[in-house]
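Obj: model holo form, ligand = 7-(2-hydroxyethyl)-8-mercaptoguanine.
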Amino acid sequence: MNNIAYLSMGSNLGNRLEYLHNAVRILDQDENIEIVRLSSIYETEPVGFTNQGNFLNLVMKIKTSYSAQELLEKCLNTEKVIGRKRGIRWGPRTIDLDILLYNQDNIETDSLSVPHPRIQERAFVIIPLLEIEPNITIPKMKDPLYTILNGIPDKEGVRLWKRKNGEDAFELFGN
Ligand code: GSY
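Output (holo structure tokens):
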């Protein structure tokens, strides 16, 4: 598995923890994906469409033999299996899976933009990403991620919900 990717996950409907857990489990069971690291879980105030419930968010680092396009399809399929219903564009969702980075690649296709184009606006992505990869660099981004984070007003809305202490990806979810 030669490729390193970072994924972001969020849920703000129903049993949010269970949706995150199910998504992590589905990815973990895929022979083309190895979960390397998982962030803590953060409770985050909604960004964009603000009249909706708080999210639980986390970020994960994976190794994968999938191409970026195949990984996108895996993410979309995982959302579908978990039962995501697509309603209003920025509205509530059982699960959302985004590819943040795929190696240091810049990818622009009809279905995929990598690095994710809204990383810089989203403290709910940057904070867990820096937790698991403090020295991460984002292609084409001039400023360090810490500097970008300092300029984001919504960072106060990102609070640690369940701390990750060990290496076991599933410790966050219990048995
Ligand atoms: O694109 C992710 C879905 N999403 C989120 C999210 O995951 N967390 C927070 N805090 N706000 C969000 N707005 C959208 S859309």
